[in-house]
Design goal:
This protein is of the alpha/beta class. It contains 10 helices and 10 strands. Strand 1 and strand 2 form a beta hairpin. Bound molecules: adenosine-5'-triphosphate and magnesium ion.
């Protein structure tokens, strides 16, 4: 119940099991994000990171376990409801609307559901990503990969989410654009944004995140702080293939 929730735990995923048809992919996966924290979700290809995020969002609902978000059990809630409760997603592959302009993509997402003191606006997104301002009238399908990722982040922020989730934050982007995305995430964290992030760059994640979750074949096999992660190079070798 909401009243019993530890005040500063925003997301608590506990022992979820998720299947695609008859094929089970998550086998009791757990992770948590406290308010204001930035937490990574790491694991080799195909280990279940995207499936974990899809389960949190209600896109591929978990069939067992518990997902508590901001005081509510959401495991069986529809995705629109989970979005309304304040989860903003930057999905793998961006999935922006190709036939809307940059401005339309952003405006279509706008929602200030929690009366934030300082809500995200179109102007604020353009300050963070000047490239998007320059491209405001371009169609989604005319953007570079980096611009698409900026737009996907901007679109998620326009919902003023309590928790921002990024699946493959910098995958497939040019080095300079990657740096820009990491700076943006640092800035968001410094503003107190809670973030759950999937990415393959362990060094960057270790520098920016508070805590880390490593999964292997649909199970959490390790979690800890950045210091703990860097102090155990074996972990990276064993679970991340580095
Ligand atoms: N729609 C689907 N139907 C059936 N199996 C799926 C589906 N999507 C993913 N899987 C399988 O589930 C497992 C986990 O996939 P998932 O996409 O969650 O991994 P991931 O950790 O995000 O991988 P990557 O690093 O490649 O993004 C994989 O074995 C994958 O083949
Ligand atoms: Mg994935």
């Amino acid at each position: 119940m909401a009243e019993n929730m530890v005040a500063d735990t925003l997301l608590e995923v506990d022992g979820i099991e998720t299947c695609y048809g008859l094929s089970q992919v998550l086998f009791g996966l757990s992770l948590s994000v406290k308010s204001g924290e930035m937490v990574s979700l790491m694991g080799r290809n195909g280990m279940g990171k995207t499936t974990t995020i899809r389960s949190i969002m209600g896109l591929t609902p978990a069939r067992a376990g518990s997902i508590r978000f901001a005081g509510s059990e959401v495991r069986t809630q529809p995705s629109y409801r989970i979005a309304q409760l304040g989860v903003g997603l930057v999905p793998e592959g961006r999935q922006i609307f190709p036939n809307l302009t940059v401005r339309e993509n952003l405006v279509a997402a706008a929602a200030d559901r929690f009366d934030s003191s300082n809500p995200w606006t179109l102007a604020a997104i353009y300050v963070m990503f000047p490239r998007l301002a320059e491209r405001a009238s371009n169609m989604g399908n005319q953007l570079s990969g980096g611009e698409q990722q900026m737009l996907a982040i901007g679109r998620a922020l326009m919902t003023n989410p309590k928790l921002l989730i990024l699946d493959e934050a910098t995958e497939g982007l040019a080095p300079l654009i990657r740096e820009e995305i990491w700076s943006c995430l640092s800035l968001l964290k410094s503003r107190g944004q809670s973030i759950l992030v999937v990415d393959k760059n362990v060094d960057h994640l270790a520098r920016i995140c508070d805590r880390h979750t490593i999964i292997e074949r649909g199970k959490t096999v390790w979690s800890g702080t950045s210091e703990e992660l860097m102090a155990e190079p074996d972990l990276q070798h064993k679970y991340l293939g580095i």
